[in-house]
């Protein structure tokens, strides 16, 4: 699951951000896992350089969450938009269906 999320989410977020044409204005990116009645767990993103470098904005993702039903990406910007929020539901449901709970436990350092 860690590999699936590390591969798919950055690509989706990068695509979204490139459409906004705001990458140089971004202050912070965070991702919430919404697991129903469970509290939200944070997944940190680090290493998103300015667009001018030509590199992808997100290089590394720390995954620490149980199977989830929804992922919310919050983007804080230095623009009149303020914060942008969008949901990646289909991606996560597709990724999680391939794994069993017992297989994932060693991947979760928070449990």
How would you sum up this structure in a few lines?
The protein is an alpha+beta fold and 111 residues long.
Structure write-up:
- With 111 residues, the chain is α+β, with helices and mostly antiparallel strands.
- It has one domain (2-107).
- It contains 3 helices and 5 strands; from the N terminus they run H-E-E-E-E-E-H-H.
- The chain has helices spanning 2-20, 89-96, 101-104; strands at residues 26-34, 41-46, 60-61, 70-77, 83-87.
- It is globular, with a radius of gyration of 14 Å.
- The protein starts with a helix and ends in a 7-residue tail after the last helix.
- The model is unreliable at 33-70 and 88-111 (pLDDT under 50).
Distinctive features:
111 residues; alpha+beta; five-stranded antiparallel beta sheet; 3 helices; globular; disordered C terminus; SMP-LTD domain-containing protein
Largest sheet: spatial strand order: 3-2-1-4-5
Low-confidence stretches: 33-70, 88-111
- Separation of the first and last Cα atoms: 16 Å
The rounded Rg comes to 14 Å
- Tally the structural domains: 1
Main sheet summary:
5 strands, antiparallel
User: Which structural category fits the helices and strands?
Assistant: alpha+beta
**What share of the residues lie within helices?**
25-40%
String of helices and strands = HEEEEEHH
Number of strands: 5
Helix count from the secondary structure assignment:
3
Specify the overall morphology. globular
